Predict the 3D structure of the following.
Amino acid sequence: MNTLTIDIRKAEPRDASAIADVHQEAWHGAYSGIIPHRTLTSMINRRGVDWWANAIRKAATVLVVEIGGTIAGYATIGKNRARELRQQGEIYELYLRPEYQGIGLGSRLFKAAKNRLSDHGLRGLVVWALEDNHNALAFYAGNGGRDVAEGVEVFEQKALKKVAFVWND
């Protein structure tokens, strides 16, 4: 019998390649058919191994979920960027490789990210998700988020609504 370990930890520069792979797979899965193809491809291509290595070395907090030695997902976290919302922390991104979705890893990574923000003294949490990304909306609502605000992101002259979910401590 093999036992797989699940570890959620701060990313290290050696994780950059795996995170870039997760980013590419997850974004294609989440946004194909929502964000125009050319823009989506460009956004993914901008964030290769060097971009992630630099983000990890700098101030960005990147967490990874590792299962059996494989990076299955990542989250980027920090201070809330939306001044109109009073929550202090924000999860900027939380993504899993498609084959690891739906088995509870996302909820574990979400909880770890939320706890890390709280440990750094940031009270309350906000997460933005595109309104057309139904899986993300269901995930954040299922994890207790309240839909409190809307915004718009524009991709190639295509305006997409985004929704803010919040959690208060």
